[in-house]
């Protein structure tokens, strides 16, 4: 039961991070960092999602660096790829392409 709750929390936080990042990206500041609007937490679900997402992303860069050799200069490309895969849903062509990219790496 604990594993199921943890997985649900991870999925929910991941989705929240993606939606929050995409919705709050307003403009670029000198082409370096996106400027984001303040976070509004209206419900307890919003709060839980925000905290889980914030907690996960504090460790994202070290994970990417350790597991994949990606540093902060590659984050825009990482986010673009993550968003593309999430937007693709269950498209079999995208799944096959992703599998080829993973194996090729």
Structural class determined from secondary elements? mainly alpha
Overall geometry comes to extended
Strand order of the largest sheet: 1-2
| Spatial separation of the terminal alpha carbons | 35 Å
Average residue pLDDT: 74
Q: Helix-strand pattern, N to C?
A: HEEHHHH
Task: Estimate what percentage of residues fall within beta strands.
Answer: 5-15%
Mind sketching the topology for me?
Elements: H1 2-24, E1 25-29, E2 33-36, H2 44-58, H3 60-68, H4 75-88, H5 92-104
Antiparallel strand pairs: 1-2
Features:
70% helix; two-stranded antiparallel ribbon
Structural summary, described in words:
The chain is mainly alpha-helical and 105 residues long. 70% of the residues lie in helices and 9% in strands. The protein has helices spanning 2-24, 44-58, 60-68, 75-88, 92-104; strands at 25-29, 33-36. Strands 1-2 form a two-stranded antiparallel ribbon. Strand 1 and strand 2 (33-36) form a beta hairpin. Helix 1 crosses helix 2 (44-58). The longest helix has 23 residues, at 2-24. It is extended, with a radius of gyration of 15 Å. The model is unreliable at 1-6 and 25-29 (pLDDT under 50).
């Amino acid at each position: 039961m604990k594993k199921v709750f943890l997985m649900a929390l991870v999925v929910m936080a991941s989705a929240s991070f993606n939606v929050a990042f995409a919705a709050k990206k307003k403009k670029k500041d000198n082409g370096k960092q996106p400027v984001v609007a303040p976070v509004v937490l209206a419900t307890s679900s919003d709060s839980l999602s925000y905290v889980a997402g914030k907690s996960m992303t504090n460790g994202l860069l070290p994970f990417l660096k350790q597991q994949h050799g990606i540093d902060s200069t590659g984050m825009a490309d990482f986010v673009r790829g993550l968003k593309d895969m999430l937007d693709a849903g269950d498209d079999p062509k995208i799944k096959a392409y992703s599998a080829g990219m993973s194996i090729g790496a």
